[in-house]
């Protein structure tokens, strides 16, 4: 593990509008009032989502009014920059890593568009080196945070310099008023807004990243993604996601572990993106996890909802806070993973 990059620090940020799930359920009951004869039954998704509260970029009345794509994207840019700057500054401070020492910044986001990419603004706001390697990643959705850790670790290993990872999503601005589908109803019950940042260093303290992994399933583009409409990015995802987890997670995780000489029976740490309550249950069933293995994932889902790409980093932050390191000669293996559009799995194998 001597050349394995380390996750030195993680920090998170959320927007100011803290909304209980009950208030968002009331919003959905008004929004979809004329669309589903069995709406009271469908609204149970809010009660069964395992979510107590979410944080959004705007108060509820803002979402009641139809907005153009440019209007929604302007909110995305404003909030994504504000949250990213807060999370990144805190991660750098926690890591005690000088900004001038950074070799690269990986910026992950899929809920808005900006050219130049927003990392160019962060470089200036955080006074990062102007020669820093900028790596923006778009379109990975819920898998983006895990993919970001993998890409940042690869850069850190190659450059032998610290790397900053920033992941941010403003999911709430993707609400399309004309979309009165069940997918949009479920999205209204699940998604929140947030940002997370991590600092990886070539050595020092923190979980060791042994390597990253990716797995893309053929012919699954319809499972999750965006459909571009005149009024913005319309959510697309299928009910089959838990079944896909049960069918494919064991092989994906086993292959990732075996690449580092690890068997699943040795797996001590599991940091999963909480796509939803049913997805977490599917992970437990598929991987034979202990009842408390996904407690941090469930806590993040409860307190923030599914924020897409940064959510797994929120889980990582809680896991790091409560999990002291093992002695270096007994460092225990773990896996960090998220699923997203493609349909794909992205992650890293850790030791801690």
Description:
The chain is of the alpha/beta class and 352 residues long. It contains twelve helices and 13 strands. Strands 1-7-6-4-5 form a five-stranded mixed β-sheet, with helices on both faces. A hairpin with a 3-residue loop joins strand 12 (333-340) and strand 13. Helix 9 (241-258) crosses helix 10 and helix 11 (295-304) crosses helix 12 (311-322). The longest helix is centred in the first third of the chain and has 27 residues, at 69-95. The protein is globular, with a radius of gyration of 19 Å. The N and C termini lie close together (11 Å).
Properties at a glance:
352 residues; alpha/beta; 4-stranded mixed sheet; 13 strands; globular
Strand content: 15-25%
Number of helices: 12
Name the strands of the widest sheet in spatial order. 1-7-6-4-5
Largest sheet: 5 strands, mixed
Instruction: Spell out the helices and strands N to C.
Output: EEHHHEHHEHEHEHEEEEHEHHHEE
